[in-house]
UniProtKB/TrEMBL annotation:
The active site is at residue 135. This is Epoxyqueuosine reductase. The lineage of its organism: Bacteria, Pseudomonadati, Pseudomonadota, Gammaproteobacteria, Vibrionales. It holds the Pfam family Fer4_16. Catalyzes the conversion of epoxyqueuosine (oQ) to queuosine (Q), which is a hypermodified base found in the wobble positions of tRNA(Asp), tRNA(Asn), tRNA(His) and tRNA(Tyr). Pathway: tRNA modification; tRNA-queuosine biosynthesis. It comes from Salinivibrio costicola. It comes from the Bacteria.
Length: 375
């Protein structure tokens, strides 16, 4: 068998299936094991216990699927047209949803395409061992993608590609065929630290290292508990995920748009008022997020995130009424509603102060700063 020729055909088949880039690498990730262990030891994975549960298997694909000698790594663009990043982030009354989740959940779509790629290879070479993965197993997909030449690891820990930035999903096909491997590309971040300095919660604690416990994506998606007070203002109107570190990246300025209609924005999620989203009942939530990655966080975390965003929004009587109407329904959500109502009350008082005569305003400011003990 001519494996060089087969590798070229695999790349052609992959592109025909909708992957913008297909690369091949071996399974040696030993150089990443110490870094992974240190990240886990520092607790940077937060409550994502599954990150530590499988130990070093994450860096050993051949242990996950015995017989694996190569990984076919693929990427698929997801940036939708008319994404409206700036418009939504700049309007604190709208809910900001991370761009990757505005359309259909990518897991099944990419996994099915990888399965088809495996079947196409099988039709060519006969029975062989293969298994597709898309965030569905303990695999270090980013180091594999980097070794396969799909891009380099940016300082935000995401894979960057010179032509298309970082707006893409990754997937892997583990195979037992000794295919020729591709050459990694050079890291081109240089001295740029825009992603690190722009993170609202300073979650990028070192180049390529993210403390998930501080990351807005983790807090609004993976984390099940009460969101710490120190992060609530920084969350702003981000109700599911965060894109800030990607938005400021120079390589994302001319990123390619997705060719997949399934990744286009759903009208029910695109630039929607916070009150509209918060007022969804559970049936509406399940219906409008069907087939979306958002559905897996459930209605209570959805409302928890929205309550924080509503607390960060300008004073609005409709926001106060919507929040108050849901008090007592869920203890987790109540914690955030109470905080949001307190934030709204502060803003209402500030508005009232602005309407006072100048002299009275001055007196109010003195009172706010604190009166002397003998006053």
């Amino acid at each position: 068998m001519d494996f060089n020729q087969l590798a070229q055909r695999i790349k052609q088949w992959g592109q025909a299936l909708g992957f913008q880039h297909v690369g091949i690498t071996d399974v040696d990730l030993t150089q990443h094991e110490a870094q992974l262990q240190r990240w886990l030891d520092l607790g940077y994975h937060g409550e994502m216990d599954w990150m530590a549960r499988h130990g070093m298997m994450r860096a050993r694909p051949q242990e996950l699927v015995p017989g694996t000698v190569r990984v076919i790594s693929v990427r698929m663009n997801y940036l939708p047209p008319n994404a409206g990043f700036a418009t939504t982030l700049a309007n604190p009354t709208l809910g900001y949803v991370s761009r990757y989740s505005l359309g259909r959940d990518y897991h099944k779509l990419i996994r099915n395409r990888l399965k088809k790629l495996g079947q196409q290879i099988e039709a060519e070479v006969g029975p062989f061992g293969y298994r597709p993965f898309v965030d569905s197993a303990p695999v270090l997909e980013r180091p594999l993608a980097e070794k396969a030449g799909l891009g380099w690891t940016g300082k935000h820990s995401l894979i960057l590609n010179k032509e298309t930035g970082s707006w893409f999903f990754l997937g892997e096909l583990l195979v037992d065929l000794p295919l020729p491997v591709d050459t990694p590309v050079e890291n081109q971040c240089g001295k740029c630290v825009a992603c690190m300095t722009s993170c609202p919660t300073q979650a990028i604690v070192a180049e390529g290292v993210v403390d998930a416990r501080r990351c807005i994506s983790y807090l609004t998606i993976e984390y099940d508990g009460v969101i710490p007070l120190e992060f609530r203002h920084a969350i702003g109107n981000r109700i599911y995920g965060c894109d800030d570190c990607q938005l400021v990246c120079p390589f994302n300025r001319d990123a390619e748009l997705t060719l997949e209609a399934d990744f286009h924005c759903r009208p029910s999620l695109e630039q929607q008022p916070l009150t509209t989203l918060f007022n969804w009942d559970e049936d509406t939530f399940l219906s409008l997020t069907q087939g979306s990655a958002i559905r897996r966080i459930g209605i209570r975390k959805w409302r928890r995130n929205l309550a924080i965003a509503m607390g960060n929004a300008p004073y609005d009587e409709d926001i106060v009424n919507s929040l108050s109407a849901r008090l007592g329904e869920d203890a987790l959500v109540d914690e955030h509603i109470q905080w949001a109502l307190g934030e709204q009350e502060k803003k209402r008082l500030q508005i009232n102060v602005q309407l006072l005569p100048t002299g009275t305003k001055r007196l109010v400011r003195i009172i706010e700063k604190g009166l002397p003990r003998d006053a």
